[in-house]
Amino acid sequence: MIEQQLRALGIELPVPKTPVANYLGSKRAGDLLFVSGRVSELRGEVGTDVSRDEAREAARLTLIDILAIIRADLGDLDSIVSVEKMNGFVRSSPTFTEQPYVIDGASDLWVELLGEPGRHARTATGVAQLPFGAAVQLEMVLGLSQSER
Amino acid sequence: MIEQQLRALGIELPVPKTPVANYLGSKRAGDLLFVSGRVSELRGEVGTDVSRDEAREAARLTLIDILAIIRADLGDLDSIVSVEKMNGFVRSSPTFTEQPYVIDGASDLWVELLGEPGRHARTATGVAQLPFGAAVQLEMVLGLSQSER
Amino acid sequence: MIEQQLRALGIELPVPKTPVANYLGSKRAGDLLFVSGRVSELRGEVGTDVSRDEAREAARLTLIDILAIIRADLGDLDSIVSVEKMNGFVRSSPTFTEQPYVIDGASDLWVELLGEPGRHARTATGVAQLPFGAAVQLEMVLGLSQSER
After folding, report:
1. Domain holding B71: CATH number?
2. What ipTM does the predicted assembly reach?
3. How many domains, in total, are found in chain B?
4. Residue B85 has pLDDT above 70, yes or no
5. Which residues lie closer than 8 Å to A10 by C-beta, 6 or more apart?
6. Which of B34, B131, B132 sits opposite A121 (nearest CB)?
7. What percent of chain B has pLDDT over 70?
8. Helix, strand, or coil here: C132?
9. Cβ-contact A122, B69 below 8 angstroms
């Protein structure tokens, strides 16, 4: 499903980046897949250096980066049957409060890829700083098909 | 159990608020319910605009808002049999360090509602900013009764 | 496995600290163990008061504190068979961006204790403030052996 939708949307996954420290891109626990936090290529503080729309686009692109990592881990994205929870961290200026708008960049893509099962519980938070000075960070818990256990 | 305790405590749930962006109030994964982050109606920075006791009360009220959302999602709160994990984000001034005191406002209510199974693992963090400039944000993972699967 | 590795590494667990507020050190949900956020004994802001290497060592020591709490909760650490997800919060100066380097202090210890199953998904975030002004906070989701259910 996801692989076909990526093609339909004309999205090509990049070469997956290797974690920069001692952790895995994702880890399976039964039917759940815990996916590591991944920062955006976009650097800067949202509300000052970076606009809300630039940050929203960065959230979408970060999810595409994450999909590349998961494909490398699982071999194929089609074992993902649902999105349970996504957390978005936005490096925010003291007055920037539109974190939900930013993280929708990634949530919208999940729904484009998986339809209703792509809709998820979510938390968006404003943080002071992120690894490498990135603007956005995403992490998530995904549901895997039983046959993949 | 929870429905009866709410009545015993004289707590009436408000009309549930709809998520402001592209996400669900909660999402089930087997016996677990992932509950989205929900911000307090109370705005402001704790330690400057908002006192620790106002923030603690806001944490309790935010949990009541969340219960309204979950009841709308599940139809009934009595399928909740335990609280596994709660995360509390407190919009904190640079010197405010009593996040655990604030989040107890919600943890105490869980124990009032569910007794021992309402006690939970928890993390309290101080963040720079929250959606809409809220003072407090809560998210959690709940345990559902098997029959509800 | 973990108990033996702790002895091999010469690590003695401290007396477990009791949570300072109304929450549990950890809570089991099926084969998963949700572990509460625990702050480092080390106080201060990383990048100003505290160096990155001091913070990294604090992350390792915080995991040792957490192991003491889990041993008290479970009776024995050998029911832990894997580490699913770890989250590290680093109280960061506005320009400190090496959160992954800091949290490796704890991730490395997990791998020393459990080998390959100790490798995990992870998120490292920079936050403005932590309970008690601590430098580092860790929380995690662990995998338990089936026989412990």
Report:
1. 3.30.1330.40
2. 0.95
3. 1
4. yes
5. none
6. B34
7. 98
8. helix
9. no
